[in-house]
Amino acid sequence: MLAVVQATLIFTITLIAVPLPDIGREFGLDTASLILVNAAYGLSFSGLLLLGGRLADRYGGRRIFTAGLLFFGLASAAAAFSPHFMMLVTVRFMQGIGAALVAPAALAILRNVLPDPAAFGRAMAVWGGVSVLGATIGTVISGAMTTWISWRWMFLVPVLVSCITLLLMSRLLPKDHDISLTNRPGQDVWGGILATLGISIASYGLIFSSSYGWSSPAVQLPLLLGSALLVAFSLVERRVKAPLLPPGFILESRRLAGLIGILLAAASMGLVTFLLSLYLQQEKGWSPLETAVGFLPYMTTLIATGRITAALIERFGADRVMVSGLLLGAAGLALLTGISRESSYMLGLLPGLVILPLGTSFIFASSAVITTINVPPYQAGLAGGVMNTAMELGPTVGLAFFMSIAALQSDVIRGYAWALGAASAVFVAAALLSMVLTKRTEPEGEALPADIS
Asked: Measured on CA atoms in the order 30, 151, 136, 52, is the torsion positive or negative?
């Protein structure tokens, strides 16, 4: 049940991409407004995840999970009935607030249910695969509903999942353990404020860079302000007794490698979904439904790969599977660089749409294990917040960076190919870096199963 909820949170990120042209026509929106509709959920989701993780660790995963899921479900229902642009943006932002509470709390619950490191490691392998599957399902379902009914109906899927989960929680999820005063994290009010504002404002600037350009004040001011707030956040965290993000938590070598993997895998999914949706609809004249069907091989590969990834991690170790995934992802992205106005779907897109998800599935599953396996139970919410922040920031940072590379070309399609090629090169570099970061032995005394670590 927790995995289904996690998939729904990621589903809600990608469901908006395909119907954006229809939403724009209905509300009469320009490109900048459509970007805001697309980004509102991610802005609040990524900005509040660290705070959501702290709340789950302090007050209990189940309590925060329940509150967040209720808020998420209500906001999703409101999105389905939005009468105008501003309400749609507002409720998308509210969806992100609920999701930022649910995601780290769900991981805290899972850590409580599975205290054994081996069982938790296997669960996290599945968790990572389910997350990437949710992203692809969002594209397919939204395309089908937009074509056959209305884009509004796609928001009822999160409502349905929220209602069913809330009804079943009392039977399936254990109550929160009493959190001892020794392990209960303290409050870090300023850290929460600075992290939330810094991540959200900097993300806002990155999101609009592709529309306005890096020289625009609308991009530069948010980036400068967001960066300043994040610097202030890092300084505050070094001085407070109970930091929201303990210094060094994300810099532990294996955890850093896992977070880089998650960020890049999410970035590649955002990039490919965005570029190919535009390419198929604007250049090839495909309908939203045809575009959604075009992504079916991607989803099918994810489903098939998800069944074997956990076994591969147990057999070869999460580190090796992650590096293999990065190299496969690089190959898939490289295959997509052959995109052109004349290329066919079967030869120009299909090979890449099969190889790339094979790699991203490996990355998400193994990185989820690497990022969380050594975390004590009282920091499970923090680990969930950090991991989901990387997953959320991936598409934002990735699109901003790679679309700026695409803009160097006057020809749109050639620009797409350049962006995909640059992404492939970054994946190769990340694979080499990961081999360095993960080449270490675990400290003595850690109760880690050899097949997971």
From this structure: positive
